[in-house]
Amino acid sequence: MIRLLLADDENLIRVALAQLLDLQDDLAVVAQAASGPEALAVARAQRPDVAVLDLQMPGLDGIGVAEALTAELPGCGVVMVTGHGRPGHLKRALAVGVRGFLPKTTSATTLATVIRSVHAGGRYVDPELAAEAMAAGDSPLTPREADVLELAADGAPVDEIAERAALSPGTVRNYLSSATLKLGAANRHDACAVARRLGWI
After folding, report:
1. pLDDT at res. 90
2. What is the pLDDT of residue 154?
3. Which CATH number does 143-197 carry?
4. pLDDT at position 137, please?
5. Phi-psi category of 51—alpha, beta or left, where left has phi over 0 and alpha has psi -120 to 50?
């Protein structure tokens, strides 16, 4: 029996998925969670064989949870499901040890097959998401440029970004200018939109 943890902040989706997966003879949902921190807590308590994580969850996103799980529970395979399959998200997920990456439009039958494959040591990435990631290439942004751009995404003024990032306003302007140039954007707001669409922030 493959013991599963399901983590998704959308209760209806999580409960329905648990019921569908429980219909499989070899799968048992032993834990559910509605946030990243809750997912980590129940994983530590239940030690599932495979964790099926939503990419976007409150408290700690699926990639953060996956990184912690692969470090603390190396025997637990991680499958990520997302409604936002952006290229940068896929690359970050694979980098922290996620072994399955699927859109939320995937059928329960396909998910069950991927869970079995990951449990057996295999890997599965949705072909369409993989093709998009390859076409997008790697992010041209440095980690610091990405951080500053993310802080700018909600329209915060330079002084506020500088304070939150513990940088001088001049350094923030330089990072924003460099990021905007690298992304071929008209301004920092456009740069934020491009980087977010590609999953780079």
Report:
1. 82
2. 84
3. 1.10.10.10
4. 66
5. beta
Report, as ranges of residue numbers, the positions in the chain whose pLDDT lies below 70: 84-85, 87, 135-137
Residue type, 1: M
Q: For domain 2-136, give the fold.
A: Rossmann fold (3.40.50)
Question: Which two tokens mark 47?
Answer: 């030690």
The ranges assigned to domains in the chain are 2-136, 143-197
Question: CA–CA distance from 34 to each of 7, 11, 104, 183 (Å)?
Answer: 6, 7, 16, 35
SS3 77: strand
Q: Residue 101 in contact with residue 78, Cβ under 8 Å? A: no
Alpha helices in the chain (DSSP H): 11-22, 36-46, 62-72, 87-95, 108-119, 127-136, 143-152, 158-165, 169-182, 188-197
Average pLDDT, rounded, for the chain: 90
What's the pLDDT at 87?
Answer: 67
pLDDT of residue 140: 86
Rounded Cα gap, residues 201 and 195, in angstroms: 6
Contacts of 197 (CB under 8 A, 6+ apart): 86
